Amino acid sequence: MATAKKASKKTAKKGAKKPAAKKSAKKPAKKAPAKKAAPKKAKKSGAKRKPNAAFMKPMTPSSTLASVVGAMPLPRTEVTKKIWDYIKKNKLQDSINKRLINADEKLRQIFGGKKQVSMFEMTKLVSSHLK
């Protein structure tokens, strides 16, 4: 008879459904902290960006700036490129801090008499020499 009770318990366990109350009594799993969504990237189009017309407008350099970049009217971007070519050709970039430019006589006139100027300050000072 003991074997019959065990057999009936096994069959009762297999066929019996658990009450729904036990499932809902379980604690829900802890959620991981929500991550911020990465910013969406803009769709790449086949066309290249158009440059801003203000940068591409030819401007006439002053006589002091013309000694470095030439007297022909040039866009601001070209003026900056020619100044950097002059700086690299004459090795005027500071050897320790590459953001600084050591002015020679021509550049010192453009930079308002300063011996050393940062590359960010340089563009500000050069723009005052463009008309």
Describe the overall structure.
This protein is mainly α. The chain has helices at residues 2-15, 20-25, 53-56, 63-69, 76-89, 105-110, 119-127; strands spanning 100-102, 116-118. The protein has a two-stranded antiparallel sheet with strand order 1-2. The longest helix is centred in the first third of the chain and has 14 residues, at 2-15. The relative contact order is 0.10. The model has no long low-confidence stretch (mean pLDDT 80).
What's the architecture of the domain at 55-127 in CATH terms?
Orthogonal Bundle
Class by alpha and beta content: mainly alpha
Q: Main sheet, how many strands, which sense, barrel?
A: 2 strands, antiparallel
- Return the average pLDDT rounded to an integer: 80
What is the CATH homology-level superfamily of the domain at 55-127? SWIB/MDM2 domain
In CATH, what is the class of the domain at 55-127? Mainly Alpha
Name the helicity range. 40-55%
> What's the number of extended β-strand segments?
2
What distance lies between the first and last C-alpha atoms, to the nearest angstrom? 111 Å
Number of helices: 7
- Give the topology string: H per helix, E per strand: HHHHHEHEH
Give the strand line-up of the largest sheet.
Answer: 1-2
